[in-house]
Recover the amino acids of this structure.
């Protein structure tokens, strides 16, 4: 029991930190530019596939640097030649633009790499158990993922607290809309923020790719959860995104590890009648099976009891 | 000389509004009599627009009370206050830009006509809404522009439309937030006579910077300085009030 | 724009004005078109394509009640489409054998009811917020329903879905609904009724207030309206019509699958509605027809048709935010001024280079695809070529670059000519 709790906690924190790696970029982009980048998970997927392609040819470590840089450049180009143009048509058009981008990224990935999972391997230098608890080996690569995401988290914190651009970001977070008063370099700031934001998502892709399945549906699987994170945390709140990332990471990991069902809890004497067939689905489903829907349930509950999200201050 | 009787239609008592540590409205007491034309003046940053946002439901007060015909409306949603007969205009033009002038005004008449959320009536068959829209458009002198999308009207025309939206419902208490801001002399004169016309048989509360307009229109003037009303009286007495001179009119009266 | 002020006061709208034909002519014409189409396009493929088109027209129009009319961007609209279909299928199965007095033609009502009920339930949560948060909530609820559908296997049928037999009901007037043509007319009739109803909705006080909320929600509150209530009613009603569309799909295919209430289906209705144009009632109709046609035909021509589809959508968002209907309405001032003929002579200046650039781009895409699936021999526009040879790549780059450059110049010229012509029309 304790073993499951320990391993699940570790996995949950890891998943949460990976989520936050993406949610942080998403939140900063949203606060500064007013755009919720629907394609964020698409850039994460690009990171994974670029990482795979580079690691296959040159090695994992160059991929860890080059793939995010490439994705960042693509992101900057998208901002410069796409988003900026759409901006004058309003937020709905911007959201639709990034939505279309998700669609195109997915189709392009399918076109180049196919629909089946690719063989993105854990680098040999990290392919060993980091430690053993209660007879379970915990892989070193996972510890590495955790280290990287915590390190980036700390660097981000430093950048935001200590640098000039960080001040701008902070100002944007507390007073959205004020960025417009920054003057002539606002375009460059936007481009940079968008590029860095999607590059962070790509980092998550590069390091999550070998541990999870690198496949053309990975953006579609993760994207909605990412948006749940930012809405539950409160749109535009970095602290809220952090808490929500960990919350959802832990929630899903623990649910997956649990095999209980309602039938286990209350016994299997479900009432008879016509409804029984339909209800039996609910009755016998295990917590692990509902794990995928838990984030969305959380979203609905949050909306009912706290419409602005955990730490949100803004109406829309 | 003043048209007001002694029954206040709108009464503020001890009204407060804080934003974080900043208290913008610091205990405002104000009574607006039925049928009165009441102007709120004061230096920039005195809290005039905040005061209007509180009365119209845009902001929720931090303390104190706002009574409309004796009923507490402080903290109510804007639409509920509007339905109780208090309507406001905005300092920054606030219209429906891609709808035609006609649709702008007609939308503003619908609630008061009782059509509410009706999705079973053909709007073109609503003769009363059509008549009312035509009346309003005639009143604000935009009838010949009825087909134009509101967003492409000239600034002065948009200001008139803003007033049109405010008076189109059945409200008899009107709040105008700087209706003449940014207008030429001739345009200001036109708006002033429009305001005079539409405020007949209604109660008017307005924020205005143009002292010519204020002394021309208002029956009573309240002076808001640093979140408090320091004087509320007839134009003559306000002019003569030493405190007001000191706090606000100082340079202009000199 | 300044026409009205130059002309003597234009007459204000008058309900009594206009003859019966002017008011209803277009609807009579539409009914005739729907009735006549199967006689013009009578092949089996055409009939099934037009049946799908009719379904999608209803679905896209219901979506535009949110996006175009009320300014609400939903990423979960297929939930109501799918649930409408599933409830229709289950009731059809429950009444099979033909004992109950409910003919097939009444089943879209089941979809409507399911769509409305779930629209009310979901709307109660989702419409508490507007803007971006609303969009994300609908996305989340869409995912919630889609993944729940995989768990509730007895209702949603798991991977293979739930099938039904539309002919196994009572059959008044000898209508068995076995042949596709009968199904086409059933869909056509419901499509016509739904279109008329949704059009009528835009011309009610509620419809106008939806527009006001779309334009400026804050101001709408200060003219007495609760914007949340407006969003809620719009959401529920649009669920109703999406449910009708879902039931029509269930009748047409005799099967419902949980994929039909998922993200892909929700995405597809966004695409067709927006490509058609959200600012005009006819826009989603055009979009549904065009996109369905492309879905039927493009998949035979290329394996990566969905990529083109996504790019078409992005191009519309960037360059023609009012969609195809928007481009068509741009011609209106020219028609009124009587110089459309002259101006349209310039259109090829932009269209031809655009097609050339598109050919270059699509050549690149097809060659990339060929290489990624591990071959090299292919043919493009009936020209056989080798995807590993440099020449086709060079040709593609020249076509794309040259075409793109000429397009930008041509488009600027067309823009100028258009602008001048409109100005000229206004002066007259």
């Amino acid at each position: 029991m304790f073993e499951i709790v320990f391993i699940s906690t570790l996995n949950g924190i890891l998943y949460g930190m990976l989520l936050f790696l993406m949610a942080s970029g998403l939140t900063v982009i949203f606060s500064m530019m007013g755009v919720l980048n629907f394609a964020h998970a698409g850039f994460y997927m690009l990171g994974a596939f670029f990482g795979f392609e580079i690691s296959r040819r040159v090695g994992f470590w160059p991929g860890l640097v080059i793939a995010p840089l490439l994705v960042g450049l693509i992101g900057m180009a998208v901002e410069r030649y796409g988003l900026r143009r759409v901006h004058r048509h309003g937020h709905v058009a911007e959201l639709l633009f990034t939505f279309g981008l998700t669609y195109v990224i997915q189709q392009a990935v399918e076109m180049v790499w196919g629909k089946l999972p690719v063989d993105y391997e854990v680098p040999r230098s990290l392919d060993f158990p980091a430690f053993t608890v209660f007879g379970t080996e915990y892989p070193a690569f996972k510890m590495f993922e955790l280290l990287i995401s915590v390190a980036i988290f700390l660097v981000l914190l430093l950048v935001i607290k200590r640098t000039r651009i960080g001040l701008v970001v902070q100002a944007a977070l507390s007073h959205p809309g004020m960025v417009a008063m920054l003057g002539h370099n606002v375009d460059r700031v936007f481009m940079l923020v968008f590029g860095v934001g999607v590059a962070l998502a790509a980092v998550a892709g590069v390091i999550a790719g070998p541990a999870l399945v690198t496949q053309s549906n990975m953006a579609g699987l993760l994207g909605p959860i990412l948006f749940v994170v930012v809405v539950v945390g409160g749109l535009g709140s970095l602290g809220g995104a952090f808490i929500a990332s960990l919350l959802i990471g832990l929630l899903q990991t623990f649910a997956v590890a649990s095999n209980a069902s309602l039938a286990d809890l209350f016994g299997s004497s479900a009432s008879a009648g016509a409804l029984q067939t339909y209800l039996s689905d609910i009755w016998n489903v295990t917590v692990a099976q509902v794990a995928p829907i838990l984030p969305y349930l959380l979203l609905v509950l949050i909306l009912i009891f706290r419409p602005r999200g955990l730490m949100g201050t803004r109406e829309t | 000389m003043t048209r007001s009787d002694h029954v206040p239609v709108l009464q503020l008592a001890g009204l407060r509004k804080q934003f974080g540590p900043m208290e913008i409205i610091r205990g405002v007491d104000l009574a607006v009599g039925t049928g009165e034309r009441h102007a709120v003046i004061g230096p920039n940053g005195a809290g005039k627009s905040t005061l209007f946002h509180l009365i119209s439901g845009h902001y929720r007060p931090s303390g104190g009370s706002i009574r409309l015909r004796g009923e507490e409306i402080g903290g109510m949603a804007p639409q509920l206050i509007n339905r109780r007969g208090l309507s406001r205009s905005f300092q920054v033009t606030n219209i429906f830009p891609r709808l035609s002038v006609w649709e702008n005004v007609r939308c503003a008449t619908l609630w008061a006509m009782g059509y509410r959320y009706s999705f079973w009536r053909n709007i073109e068959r609503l003769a009363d809404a059509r008549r009312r829209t035509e009346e309003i458009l005639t009143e604000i002198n935009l009838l010949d522009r009825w087909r134009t999308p509101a967003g492409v009207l000239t600034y002065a025309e948009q200001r008139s439309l803003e007033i049109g939206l405010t008076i189109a419902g059945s409200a008899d208490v009107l709040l105008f937030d700087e209706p003449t801001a940014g207008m030429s002399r001739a345009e200001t004169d036109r708006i002033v006579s429009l305001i005079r016309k539409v405020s007949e048989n209604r109660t008017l509360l307005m924020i205005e910077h143009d002292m010519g307009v204020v002394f021309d229109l208002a029956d009573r003037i309240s002076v808001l300085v640093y979140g408090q009303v320091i004087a509320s009286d007839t134009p003559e007495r306000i002019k003569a009030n030493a405190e007001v001179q000191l706090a606000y009119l100082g340079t202009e009266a000199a | 724009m300044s026409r009205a002020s130059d002309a003597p006061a234009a007459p204000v709208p008058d309900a009594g004005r206009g003859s019966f034909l002017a008011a209803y002519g277009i609807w009579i014409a539409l009914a005739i078109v729907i009735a006549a189409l199967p006689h013009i396009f009578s092949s089996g493929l055409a009939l099934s394509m037009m049946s799908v088109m009719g379904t999608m027209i209803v679905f896209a129009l219901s979506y535009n009640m949110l996006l175009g009319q009320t300014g609400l961007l939903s990423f979960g609209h297929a939930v109501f489409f799918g649930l409408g279909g599933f409830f229709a299928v289950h009731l059809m199965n429950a009444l099979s054998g033909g004992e109950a007095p409910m003919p097939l033609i009444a089943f879209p009502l089941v979809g409507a009811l399911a769509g409305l009920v779930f629209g009310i339930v979901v709307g109660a949560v989702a419409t508490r917020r507007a803007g971006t948060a609303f969009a994300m909530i609908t996305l989340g609820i869409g995912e919630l329903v889609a993944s729940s559908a995989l768990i509730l296997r007895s209702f949603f049928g798991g991977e293979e879905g739930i099938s039904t037999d539309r002919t196994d009901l009572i059959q008044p007037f000898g209508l068995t609904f076995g042949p596709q043509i009968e199904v086409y007319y059933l869909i056509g009739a419901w499509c016509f009724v739904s279109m008329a109803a949704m059009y009528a909705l835009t011309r009610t006080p509620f419809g106008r207030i939806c527009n006001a909320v779309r334009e400026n929600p804050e101001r709408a509150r200060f003219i007495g309206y609760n914007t949340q209530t407006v969003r809620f009613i719009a959401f529920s009603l649009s669920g109703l019509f999406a449910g009708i569309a879902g039931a029509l799909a269930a009748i047409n295919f005799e099967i419902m699958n949980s994929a039909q209430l998922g993200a892909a289906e929700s995405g597809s209705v966004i695409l067709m509605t927006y490509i058609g144009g959200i600012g005009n009632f006819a826009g989603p109709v055009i979009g549904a027809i065009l996109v369905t046609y492309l879905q039927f035909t493009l998949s035979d021509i290329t394996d990566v048709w969905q990529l083109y589809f996504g790019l078409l959508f992005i191009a519309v968002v960037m360059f023609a935010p009012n969609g195809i209907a928007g481009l068509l309405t741009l011609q209106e001032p020219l028609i009124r001024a009587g110089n459309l003929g002259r101006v349209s002579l310039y259109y090829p200046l932009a269209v031809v280079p655009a097609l050339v650039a598109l050919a270059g781009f699509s050549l690149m895409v097809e060659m990339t695809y060929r290489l990624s699936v591990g071959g090299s021999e292919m043919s493009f526009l009936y020209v056989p070529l080798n995807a590993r040879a440099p020449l086709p790549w060079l040709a593609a780059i020249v076509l794309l670059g040259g075409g793109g450059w000429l397009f930008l110049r041509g488009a600027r010229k067309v823009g100028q000519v258009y602008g001048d012509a409109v100005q000229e029309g206004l002066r007259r």
Q: What stands out?
A: The longest helix of chain C spans residues 390-427. Chain C has two domains: 19-320, 332-427. The first strand of chain C starts at residue 162 and ends at 163. The beta strands of chain C are 162-163, 255-256, 377-380, 383-386.
